[in-house]
Automatic annotation (TrEMBL):
This is Ribosomal RNA small subunit methyltransferase G. GO terms for biological process: methylation. It is an enzyme of class 2 (transferase). InterPro entries: rRNA_ssu_MeTfrase_G, SAM-dependent_MTases_sf. It is found in: Cytoplasm. S-adenosyl-L-methionine binds at residues 78, 83, 129-130, 146. The keyword Nucleus does not apply. Its EC number is 2.1.1.-. It comes from Geobacter benzoatilyticus.
Length: 220
């Protein structure tokens, strides 16, 4: 990863409230190198320039830090090349992070990255999200996804896995607020409510982002 992309990562992360250490920057650089190398053989991402990887994968993924606490168990459903879970795990060693994807070669890549970066609190599992309930019923404090599915399909998959006081976070782009408004009745039927909607521009590019934070309805 070149110096320009590293500077962008450092600056972009700081703008969303994450101060990266030199050690963490080194890990992101290794991750970017492996992503580019493996992407020549297996389809992990359409984003291939180092600047774009720094911004649209790394900084974007780190934005979930704004709504996720400092401890507990986190699940990323449909994580592909490891987003948002691996960037989050690089900066957050107190959360046990589990990554799930239905495509085995993507999980093999993620395990390789986890080993290379020494992420001991990170595990990558090859499975469909629908298959996890037997092993992980009510297990996760935080369940996140990016570019995975519409909100109702995501939360239906997440609910059996969510701890009683757990939180679901859907990472959306422009149109996130509108989608949240449309699905509110469906969420209601599932016993969920939207607790927070955080809209912000992605640093540097200004692209719109929206984090939709949901949990089980309380007081009933
Ligand atoms: C568009 S990619 C997004 C990857 C990553 N979250 C990102 O933002 O770069 C969607 C991913 O979800 C995975 N996927 C789709 N349906 C799934 C399911 N039912 N269970 C687990 N993974 C699934 C696909 O294999 C793919 O890697």
């Amino acid at each position: 990863m070149n110096q320009d992309a590293k500077d962008l990562l450092l600056r972009g992360a700081a703008q969303i409230g994450v101060e990266l250490t030199a050690d963490q920057i080194g890990k992101f650089a290794l991750y970017a190198d492996e992503l580019k190398k493996w992407n020549r053989k297996i389809n992990l991402t359409a984003i291939t320039t180092e600047r774009e990887i720094a911004l649209k994968h790394f900084v974007d993924s780190l934005s979930i830090s704004r709504v996720i606490g400092n401890e507990g168990r986190l699940l990323d459903l449909g994580s592909g090349g490891g987003f948002p879970v691996i960037p989050f795990a690089i900066v957050n060693s107190r959360i046990d992070a589990v990554s799930v994807d239905a495509v085995e070669k993507k999980i093999i890549f993620q395990r390789h990255v986890g080993r290379t970066l020494g992420l001991r609190h990170f595990e990558a599992i090859h499975a469909r999200g629908e298959e996890l309930a037997a092993r992980y019923a009510f297990h996760f404090d935080w369940i996140v996804s990016r570019a995975f599915s519409d909100i109702p399909a995501f939360v239906r998959m997440a609910l059996p896995l969510l701890a009683p006081n757990g939180t679901i976070v859907a990472m959306k782009g422009q149109g996130g607020r509108e989608e949240a408004g449309t699905v509110r009745p469906a969420l209601e039927i599932l016993g969920l409510e939207i607790r927070q909607m955080l809209e912000f521009p992605l640093p540097i590019s200004g692209d719109r982002r929206c984090l939709i934070v949901m949990g089980r309805k309380t007081g009933e």
